[in-house]
């Protein structure tokens, strides 16, 4: 995996709200409104966070009508897991 891609993923996960969204998506796909509900922030702010997650490759989105649904990108999580596992083996 290229270093820039790892940088984007770790940057995306550096924010507590984005980590919370990733946690929620770990239980299955969710709409923007479902992801925004537990957060005390405006919808445009939620969308900016989701954009960071999507740009990092950690989540994918699909739009059906007026509803945008996000889901975890398992392959990207696998890259992170392998990177961390390799560091654990080196210590």
From TrEMBL:
Residues 1-91 form the HTH arsR-type domain. It comes from the Bacteria. Keywords: DNA-binding. GO terms for molecular function: DNA binding; DNA-binding transcription factor activity. This is DNA-binding transcriptional ArsR family regulator.
């Amino acid at each position: 995996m290229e270093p820039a891609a790892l940088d984007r993923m770790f940057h995306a996960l550096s924010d507590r709200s984005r980590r919370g969204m990733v946690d929620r998506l770990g239980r299955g796909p969710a709409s923007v409104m479902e992801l925004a509900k537990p957060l005390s922030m405006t919808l445009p702010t939620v969308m900016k966070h989701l954009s960071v997650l999507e740009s990092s490759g950690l989540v994918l989105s699909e739009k059906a009508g007026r509803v945008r649904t996000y889901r975890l990108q398992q392959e990207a999580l696998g890259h992170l897991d392998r990177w961390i596992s390799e560091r654990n083996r080196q210590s």
